[in-house]
Amino acid sequence: MQLLVGLGNPGNKYKNTRHNTGFRFVDALARKQGLRFTAAPRFHAETAVWEQGGRKVLLVKPQTFMNNSGECVGPLASYYGVITAGIFVVYDDLDLAAGKFRLKTGGGHGGHNGLRSLNQHLPDSDYRRIKVGIGRPPNSMPKGIDVTSWVLSKATTDDQRQEERIFTALMEELPTVLGGDLALASNHMHLHLQES
Q1: I want to staple 151 with a disulfide (CB 3.0 to 4.6 A). Which of 19, 40, 86, 196 is the partner?
Q2: What CATH number does the domain containing 48 carry?
């Protein structure tokens, strides 16, 4: 079993915000695969099981709000016996421009409260990160100013298109990502994005 976690905030109020990039990706994947999310109240989550290439992947949308995502993911990983390297997390990244992505293993939280919570509730921080760029607020604002309202606002139409392009490329490469070869998946995604 592997966990594919989309980070976001529950409720319609947040559905289309930049911070809900992770939710949107796992929702898009579930639609493509004909899966339905069901409530898992014990874990404060919505989950769906995806059978992919002989492996079981649990799609997860924490219902704890972003800042407490680890309270959902930590117990789920423990219950299913999933090691940290078997957890894949899709989330928004301020330090990447819209239309950019990055795949990596481990690291700090980089100021992202969802990751901060995961790092507190998992044995280590060696989970796989799928970062989708949302950029920082425009107009050369000083770092940290108005970031909250930025991440909780709706992306522009162009940024939404960029997100969809990344989602399409990522879905193509998910078997490679879940197989652990992030470098190969990243190379293929870059090629896909150049061609699209």
Answers
A1: 19
A2: 3.40.50.1470
**Would residue 66 be called left, alpha or beta, if left means φ above 0 and alpha means ψ between -120 and 50 degrees?**
alpha
Please return the burial class of 31, using the count of CB atoms within 10 Å of its CB with bins 0-12, 13-18 and 19+: exposed
Pairing of strands 2-6, 87-93: parallel
* Total tally of structural domains belonging to the chain: 1
Closest CA to 129 of 165, 155, 96, 151: 96
pTM for the predicted model, two decimal places: 0.93
Task: Domain of residue 74: give its range.
Answer: 2-195
- Choosing from 19, 44, 112, 192, which is the catalytic residue? 19
Q: What is the CA radius of gyration of the chain?
A: 16
Mean pLDDT of the chain: 92
Percent of the chain with pLDDT over 90: 75
* Rounded (10°) CA dihedral 138, 141, 147, 152: -30
